[in-house]
Amino acid sequence: MVIKKQWLVCVSLLLIGLLVMPVLAGGCAKEPEGPKTLKIGTVMPISGPWGPIGLTEDRGMDLCADRINEQGGLKVGGDTYLVEFIHEDSKTEPEASTNSTTKLVHQDKVDFVVGAIVESASEAIHSVAEEAGILHVLAYSTIPPPYAWGAGGDVPLMVLLCQTTCRGYPDVFDYLHENYPDVKTMVHSENLFPHEPLMELAEELLAERGIEVVGMERFDPAAADFYPWAAACLKWNPDAISVDHSGPAQMGKQIKALREQGFEGPIVSLAPISPVFILAGAGAENCYDIICQAAYAQAPDAPEVMQEAVRRWNAKFPDDDFVDDALHGWNIAGVLFQGIEKAQSLDAEAVLKALEDMDEPGDLEVTSGSGYMGGEQTIGANRELVISQAISVIQGNDVENVEWSMPSLP
After folding, report:
1. What's this model's pTM, rounded to 2 decimal places?
2. Which candidate, 325, 306, 340, places its Cα nearest to that of 159?
3. One-character DSSP codes across 345-363
4. Domain count across the chain
5. Strand runs (DSSP E) across 240-363, as ranges?
6. Residue 288, in any domain of the structure
7. What confidence tens digit (pLDDT) does each residue in 148-203 have?
8. CATH code, 246
């Protein structure tokens, strides 16, 4: 009898334990971890003559990050990351770029660094990022490799995620030749940075299309008065004028100065400057036969991702008109995100390798549709973004994307 009672007590205690244990376990269980934060620093010109570009591209990156975060974040190795961009000013100067990058790397503890616009600032950014083992995402290269320093195979921990203007030269010059057959002479103009290799490339490509470069003129990108420059261009009596590496505020002023001094021929803007900036600076009365190597995202036939960028801009910045340069920032962020997810890692080398492997047209989604990483034969590694590019034409207040092309970069 005593044994039977003891057995019943043991069974009762066991049953009570089985009932109580899940409750206790539930009370002690860890809450599932929430998303982590992926910090990306940018060192772009926010002040100075290039400030409008830097500010707009920073906004484009933020808009792309909003899209990713709304979709639940980046899924990397079993973890989820929400993206946060931290923006600093390069002032287009090496010292400011070094200081900003140092802050981002050592104080903010960013995982990647994006920037900048000119080589001197980019080199300063890279020296800090490389020492810290962080991937430097080059946002623009005025003279891309193999012509000068940049995201070539011999530069560690660097990738160029913004299209460079010279890759689109052949298609733009083809459009000029086919649509303006009377153009036989050209003045090609660059700013004061050392662009001699690209000036030679432009001259060679134009000659292949039967257009003689009769003059080369330089300009100060920080200048406010472009009438002397326009007079220097017009002394050659050209049929057309092409301008590369002008700033967003400068290109409109250059067009205005040329038109007011009587030039009526086509003007080619080779820098990827938004037609919105050009119209604002030159005025519709001076904007005719303006050929731009840049998309107009607000055109009715613009690709869906471009239209999404415009909608997001209008919702987030309702007091500011959309500027197409934001598309460059969106592409930089979006392609980096795709590389991270393909690598399933935040390791700099792993992400760089994943991007290099996305080397077929269509491997990457960009605002213009599709893109890929090219350059293995040309610059020693697939480290330069190549995207479907637009040629747009301004006629008064009307802007139209007249042609889309995919440059080749083997």
Report:
1. 0.87
2. 340
3. S--HHHHHHHHHT--STTS
4. 2
5. 240-243, 267-269, 290-292
6. yes
7. 888 888 999 999 998 888 999 999 999 999 999 999 999 999 988 778 888 999 99
8. 3.40.50.2300
